[in-house]
Specification:
- A hairpin with a 5-residue loop joins strand 23 and strand 24.
- The strands form 7 sheets. The protein has a 6-stranded mixed sheet with strand order 11-16-15-14-12-13, with helices on both faces.
- The chain is an alpha/beta fold.
- The chain binds beta-D-glucopyranose.
Amino acid sequence: MMFFAANVQAQKSPVYLDAKLPIDIRVKDLLSRMTIEEKAGQLNQLSGGAFTGPALNDNGQKEKMQLVKEGKMGSLLNVLGSTDTRAIQEVAMQSRLKIPLLFGYDVIHGYKTIFPIPLAEACSWNLPQIEKNSGVAAKEAASAGVHWTFAPMCDISNDPRWGRVMEGAGEDPFYAALVSGARVKGFQGSLKDNDHILSCVKHFAGYGAVEGGREYNTVDFSRVQLWNKYLPSYKAAVDAGAATVMNAFNVYDGIPASGNKYLINDILKKRWGFKGFLVSDWGSFKEMIWHGYASDDKDAALKAFKAGSMMDMESKVTVKYLPMLVKEGKITMQEVDEVVGKILYFKFKLGLFEDPYKFSNPEREKANLFTAENRSIARTAAAGAIVLLKNSNNLLPLKKDTKIALIGLYADSKADMFDFWVAQGSSNDAVSVLEGLKSTFPNLMAYAPGYLSDNSTNDSLIQSATIAAKTADVIVVNIGISGKMAGEDRALAYPQISAGQISLLKALRTLGKPIVALVSSGRPLVLTEAEPLTDAMLQCWILGTEHGNAIADIMSGDKTPTAKTVMSFPYAVGQIPVYYNHFNTGRPTTDDPAGNWYSRYRDIPRDALYPFGFGLSYTSFAYNNIKISAAKLKSSDKLTVSVTVKNSGNKSGEEIVQLYIRDYAASVVRPVKELKGYQRVTLDPGASEVINFTIGAKELSFYDADGKQMLEPGKFAVMIGGNSRDVLSADFEME
Ligand code: BGC
């Protein structure tokens, strides 16, 4: 009898495979069956495909598959497609406990249907659209076997020399926080179906502040800046439910982010209550040795773990040394279980124990990728990202029968339209500017490249461009830099329009015809020299698959531009970093225009060429009559601020009305302006609307150096306008 009962027990499937049980019980049961080597394996992530970082003693696919079979791999990145993910998952199913792998990938702005780069997308100020775009990207990726995207990047940056500004949401903490939240929601949904994927908040923290904009460089800023400027965007993404967070490459306060207890244990886990898991950036555990913080691989594994870091992307130090560190008593099994449990949790949550191939279905992959519907969403998103910087004499929009000459290598180079992070998007599928304009403007009569791929030019290129432009009504010139210069490891000392493109513009200018410049770039470039050589300028960024169509939509007036830049455009390279939310300094200005001794440049203006929040429409808007509900306020009160916005032009248009505040005196100095709200309003010509904003403690408080939220009495300004420079202002006092 006894023998019989034991036998039945042995045949019963383990508790962790019982889908009816709550996840935490299943996790606990599974952990109780795992060896320390298998637990360390869950913290191991290697690239199973392309390399998106340096090879660190890579031993090839065979060794990796062996690790998968032995249960010593928790996740692979860069493995995709329903066929490949299934094949490798099948190997994981040969492991002792059959713990499924997580497949991670950089789905940054689309998977197959490519959306505008995140920086451009953010210029739409359209959160529902942003969430929708991420949702499409998630569904495509999920249909191709991917469980997890390494996005959104929530790094605030003021520095267009940094190639990765393209991945973020610009320079403003308040707005970037909203965008980060929307992106997380779009990617993850409720994680209950297989149309959504895990998101990853990166790079925690402060990576956008790399000195001189140089990739992988040092970061060094105060805790006041950390709390007020850099953290809100990550926090919003965590609050939106992001499942994972990625360490940054940089140091903060002299300690590499991957080993930084203050950032991970104190802020992320304790103060923010983050319950998900962390993944290192590519090799960032091991890089702590190069930083001069860890003495060797084992020390790196220990320091990363003790600081609160978890999964090890590509360093292989955790899989190798965690078991030893546990045996030596430096790390307890309880600590290990807590961390591994978090990773297992998401594997259960995605339903992978029930069906490890849930995301790997070729029919679904075929049906869901690059659909007409996805492309149409991408086209709308792309048009919503184009910023109209200049429009003298209302040159734009152009009538569809306008005789156009199109000049510029990038207008006909699909490869140059795509940036570094295009996942499985193919530039061959993308619509070039030439194609987009051709299908909208039948009188596009001539095209000439005008410059070479290094942005230089020569007499013969200029000559053929001027010949091409001679009989046109309007010359459209695509200037900027190659899309290939946008992304990781693409730092530039001179983010500007090249001398060659300026010569080209000058030559075209002599023809005396109106010139429209289309600027393509993954970052704001210095446009100071180009601007006077043009009549209209559209900042087109890198718009993805529908690039050319979206530009045609805007140029023809089929769609009206509504975007506003979320990064300031520097006047000169030497002015970088330039951003709207700077401190006032002790020498902000002087009343005497000829005066000396104040903070400025002697050779250029102090302010940006185009400030944060700037973007024109085909109509114009007038702001009048700013009113506040009270001149004095108690800390518990709410203040209503209103302004009248009128469409003062002769076309319908949509305006993004922006609200800024200033705290004149506080226990730590506050920026001259801080965005605290915005609203969209659509108005017909001549129509006006009163726009109301409500502000209170939340908008008026700030963080001290310890991350404590402070609300202090004193004088404040509230400002409203269509960009961060041109605002109406009213003062009030909080008691
Ligand atoms: C980047 C990350 C990226 C990772 C994986 C790193 O080099 O910094 O943002 O997610 O590679 O591709």
